[in-house]
Amino acid sequence: MKETPINYDVVKRKILESKIPNIGKATIREIKRLINEIECETGQRFIRMEMGVPGLPAVEIGVQAEIEALKKGVAAIYPEIDGTPELRKETVRFIKLFLDVDVNPENCIPTVGSMQGGYATFMTVNRMYKEKDTTLMLDPCFPVHKQQHAVIGTKFEAFDVYEYRGDKLKDKLESYLKKGNIANIMYSNPNNPSWICFTEKELRIIAEMANKYNAVVIEDLAYFGMDFRKDYSRPGIPPYQPSVAKYTDNFVLLISSSKAFSYAGQRIGMMIISPKLFSTVAPDLKRYYVSDNFGRAMLYGTIYSLSAGTAHTAQYAMAAILKAVNDGSYNFVDVVKEYGEKAKIMKQMFLDNGFTIVYDKDENEPIADGFYFTFAYPGFTGEELLEELLYYGVSAISLAITGSSRVEGMRACVSLVNRNQFADLESRLKKFNENHKGI
Q1: Residue 2 confidence (pLDDT) above 80
Q2: In angstroms, how far is CA 2 from the centroid of its own chain?
Q3: pTM score, two decimals?
Q4: Eight-state DSSP code of residue 399
Q5: Which fold has domain 8-56+336-436?
Q6: Under a CB-based contact definition with an 8 Å cutoff, are residues 119 and 140 in contact?
Q7: Pick the CATH number of 60-327 from 3.40.50.2000, 3.90.105.10, 3.40.640.10, 3.40.50.300
Q8: Is residue 374 left, alpha or beta, with left meaning phi > 0 and alpha meaning psi from -120 to 50?
Q9: Is 439 exposed, middle or buried (0-12, 13-18, 19+ CB in 10 A)?
């Protein structure tokens, strides 16, 4: 047994007490709880990279707008299920100014975070046509999206997109879509967990295949504008956030307040449904809903059943944030660039101590530094590495739970790592490398 920064016996005992059969395949919340218990007993602080949660203060614009809304008494009033007029208006403006895409106010629905937006979309889209009951996920992906499918009782298929970048993507997509059972194609861009970003060519390919086989594209834009290689922060001025919505009229976009707008605690997001899809009539919807109109089924069937609307005051907060962004008085991208700056430093620490970056390219271009990065160490699977790093006070999650084919890898989130922990991170990685180099 080699000397480790965190007491070996305590870590070993806590792992056994957790009753988790395979630490490497534990859920994010299980890992979080285990580390909390180790920290509590040892009094030593971990480098926490397992949770994909924001690490910046809430946007004051939103806080003040929500306080004002509370003072006006809106907490006593049910919100309209389709959202406040102010929020819908600013969402339409935002989509035009930052994606250069036209939608209507009725196409913009507030949700309890984009997670609820995804849940509602899977539930509704996969019931439009009897023969189309399956989601195609472009892995790696946020593990909870697959968990949602299990809870709903709907099917999904998936493949790791990293080996099928560029022109290779077309044939791979078609191999799934031609079977006729795929209702939607789902992915995040930038990607959680790999931080790869689809190129315009790839987005056109996804749109082309979706149009050909009548599949809805669900695009999770939780990390809107956070590919810091280009400046997507200027309203109405190119470049625009890359989106499949530029190339197809059969889409659902999910926009979250949590990461890009640092307003996670109030659980508010926006679902933007293309005008064409919103007005689509699909008779098979009547197996589950009163209406066969997609927009009405979504709004008055699924959303109403899930939450009867989104918290009233949070909608005022989101509207105020979007208005400031749209007006150009608040640059949301400048604020979150801190994540990219930290990632650049942290990735270099890993590289300097024998680790490698797993997902490292967008086609031929190095990926951006951002909210996440992926790493591996020679001789370890991701599952083995996760457990071994616990003894060194470093936490992350295995890529095995994200659908990745890169089983050697792990996902790190930079948000909760403070710069004052960089020296600890560097020394712990150095110790790990000393103890494992050449093994």
Answers
A1: no
A2: 37
A3: 0.94
A4: G
A5: Aspartate Aminotransferase, domain 1 (3.90.1150)
A6: no
A7: 3.40.640.10
A8: beta
A9: exposed
For the chain, percent of residues with pLDDT exceeding 90: 94
Tens digit of each residue's pLDDT (9 = 90 or more) over 82-93: 999 999 999 999
Is the per-residue pLDDT at 311 higher than 60? yes
User: How many CA atoms are closer than 13 Å to the CA of 20, on its beta-carbon side?
Assistant: 21
Structure tokens at 153: 């009782």
What pLDDT was estimated at residue 1? Answer: 55
For the chain, domain boundaries: 8-56+336-436, 60-327
Residues 166-183: pLDDT tens digits?
Answer: 999 999 999 999 999 999
Question: Whole-number mean pLDDT of the chain?
Answer: 96
**DSSP string covering 60-110:** HHHHHHHHHHHHTTGGGSPPPTT--HHHHHHHHHHHHHHH-----GGGEEE
Q: Is the pLDDT confidence value at 439 over 90?
A: no
The residue among 404, 400, 406, 394 whose CA lies nearest residue 436 is 394
